């Protein structure tokens, strides 16, 4: 992506980058991760935060940016054909708000994962990441939204997530393991990523090859 290369070489005029990215969806989303990281959003650790992130990333890209999906969805790209057409592969659309409230309550009970040692933090984050992945609140853009939410949550809990070691195949494998009820794939993934937070750092999430997840 030309816009990505320009940013990496020091062109940090976000307004100009946004203008130049208008005709390319991937570039537009990449630049908006920069805007989100710099301007932040209300860190409410609930569905409102997920919607704010989604809106910030995809407004002008998706027609439904920030809006919850209204239909049940399946997992077409899984290798498990029994699950590919199964509407229960993700949370029922009419219960998304209830499911999100349960996850937010769980996080609040766990003090938003603060004051945990590294091993406990990784296990708890993998569990929450799996729960939110199953919730799948939006029609599209869930993975990118979730990665940014998890990075913000981790940073405020005293840890930074370095997505550099994570490629698409590692991420896909961890997700497929989670569909089968095993979060160990996410635990191994986060073990590669978690490091003590730099309190002066403004985290930027772009991921593999500086591109959006999907």
TrEMBL record:
EC number, as in UniProt: 2.7.7.108
Catalytic activity: L-tyrosyl-[protein] + ATP = O-(5'-adenylyl)-L-tyrosyl-[protein] + diphosphate; L-threonyl-[protein] + ATP = 3-O-(5'-adenylyl)-L-threonyl-[protein] + diphosphate
Keyword Transmembrane helix recorded: no
GO MF: AMPylase activity; ATP binding
Keyword Transferase: yes
UniProt record, GO biological process: regulation of cell division
This protein's UniProt keywords: ATP-binding, Nucleotide-binding, Nucleotidyltransferase, Transferase
InterPro entries noted in UniProt: Fido (IPR003812), Fido-like_dom_sf (IPR036597)
Domain Fido: 45-195
Enzyme class, first EC level, given as a word: transferase
Source superkingdom: Bacteria
Annotated PANTHER family: PROTEIN ADENYLYLTRANSFERASE FIC-RELATED (PTHR39560)
The protein's name in its UniProt record: protein adenylyltransferase
């Amino acid at each position: 992506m030309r816009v990505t290369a320009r940013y990496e070489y020091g062109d940090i005029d976000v307004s100009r980058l946004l203008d130049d990215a208008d005709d390319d969806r991937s570039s537009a989303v990449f630049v908006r991760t920069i805007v989100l990281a710099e301007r932040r959003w209300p860190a409410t650790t609930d569905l409102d935060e997920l919607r704010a992130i989604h809106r910030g990333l995809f407004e002008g890209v998706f027609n439904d940016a920030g809006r919850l999906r209204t239909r049940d969805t399946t997992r077409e790209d899984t290798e498990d054909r029994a699950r590919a057409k199964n509407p229960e592969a993700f949370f029922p659309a009419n219960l998304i708000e209830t499911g999100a409230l349960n996850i937010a309550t769980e996080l609040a009970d766990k003090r938003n994962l603060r004051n945990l040692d590294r091993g406990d933090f990784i296990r708890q984050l993998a569990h929450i990441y799996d729960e939110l992945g199953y919730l799948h609140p939006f029609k599209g853009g869930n993975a990118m939204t979730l990665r940014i939410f998890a990075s913000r949550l981790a940073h405020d809990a005293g840890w930074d997530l370095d997505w550099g070691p994570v490629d698409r195949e590692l991420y896909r494998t961890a997700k497929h393991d989670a569909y089968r009820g095993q979060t160990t794939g996410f635990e191994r993934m986060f073990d590669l990523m978690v490091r003590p937070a730099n309190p002066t750092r403004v985290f930027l999430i772009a991921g593999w090859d500086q591109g959006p997840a999907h």
